[in-house]
Amino acid sequence: MNCVGHINHGLWTHPRDQSHRFNQLSYWTELAQILEKGLFDGLFLADITGAYDVYANNIDLTLRESVQLPSHDPAPVISAMAAVTQHLSFGVTVNLSYELPYQFARRFATLDHLTEGRLAWNIVTGYLDSAQKLVGQDRLQAHDQRYDQAEDFLTLCYRFWEGSWEDDALQIDKQARRFADPDKVHYIQHQGPFYQSQGVFQVAPSKQRTPVLFQAGASPRGLAFATRHAECIFIGGDKIEHIQKQVQKIRELTVQQGRPVDAIKIFLGCTVVSAESSSLARDKFIEYQQYASPEAGLAHFSGSIGLDLSQFAEDDVIPYRNTNSIVSVNQKFKQQDITLADLKAQHPLGGRYPVIIGSGAEVAEQLIDLFDQTGIDGFNLTRTVSPESHLDFVQWVIPELQQRGRYKTAYQDGSLRQKLFAQGDHLHPTHPADQYRCQPSAQVNDQQQKRA
Fold this sequence. Notes:
Elements: H1 25-37, E1 42-45, H2 60-64, H3 76-83, E2 89-95, H4 101-114, E3 119-124, H5 129-134, H6 143-163, E4 170-173, E5 178-180, E6 188-191, E7 196-199, E8 212-215, H7 220-229, E9 232-235, H8 240-256, E10 265-275, H9 278-291, H10 294-305, H11 327-330, H12 332-335, H13 340-346, E11 355-359, H14 360-374, E12 378-382, H15 388-403, H16 416-421, H17 441-451
Parallel strand pairs: 1-2, 2-3, 3-8, 8-9, 9-10, 10-11, 10-12
Antiparallel strand pairs: 4-5, 6-7
InterPro entries: Diverse_substr_monoxygenases (IPR051260), Luciferase-like_dom (IPR011251), Luciferase-like_sf (IPR036661), NTA_MOA (IPR016215)
Family: Belongs to the NtaA/SnaA/DszA monooxygenase family.
Protein name: Monooxygenase
């Protein structure tokens, strides 16, 4: 995230941590080069609109521990990282609730051009009342209504990205003075429940046209949306059985949406602390704990569930309350008794993802075991001390995965979508965006002549 404290809170105070440099371009270009050296598929940039002001009903702790505040726009750093890499891709979170579809679609089509097809969009709809107030509204829209708006937003983006320009509309013929063929550029017309638009999209087709689509919806409405639109889904979980059930449910819902069972890549969030040996890794984890802030993790968690956790004592069972925030996270309090002490124990590094600790070989074996037993497609690794955690993974874990034949030894060519699915640069024909693709002019003329 383009900030100091993202998931594992408090570690910005560690002497070796460099995340305070997040506002410097060199911080991002150096990070991109580290990840490309390790053959990472991509760098995922989270983002949020608003501030975590639910805990103690203020932002005091949020500011002291820099819990995603300050945070900067993630999009501007993409071009710089793309310029110093050839293969690393970039997933960017944008909250569509506070965007205009046309301006957003234009910005992301431009980024897909500049990265030569290495762009992904993580689709979010927001969960903070503070964000709504920042844009001049009273409170957050109802959970399901946010997804209704997202459906209309995506439909319009598909029309822009897929429906305005034919693949061969650009001719760039200097002798004939013909840059683009007017017959191959089409006006779009959209009259939706939330958005209306008519006209020609200003950006000619980029390599992927539509960026690779990520989502993390886990509520019933969120999963319906994700399995309809997403190509990649983030999930959480620390128990094999729980992860297995999530994967199975996603696969089943994907098929019900009329898509292939393997149409979506599923990535499990986790944190890795690794070193040359098991004992050194354990020592490093203990060292990290001295700088971590579980309470800052609670402030983050309070915003996620819309409930002030500062009001509870250590041994109080946290009650379930129906809020308008992240439904899937809040449901945990409905399903089991959880105390504040339990939450702090689950946040040893200030973050709520499971932590894998060990030598490179031990971490590799655990990752392989998770992969094989659950049916996931990969991992979304959260940082601890930056850039140390990235360097450690590249140095200790990746060679062990490669020795076991479970990690690539070189990049393949092509766009992010081609690298992930090996089915070309564009969205699969079974994706709902397919219905908005413009047909080649010759094909349209043939159909008109047949009707005549």
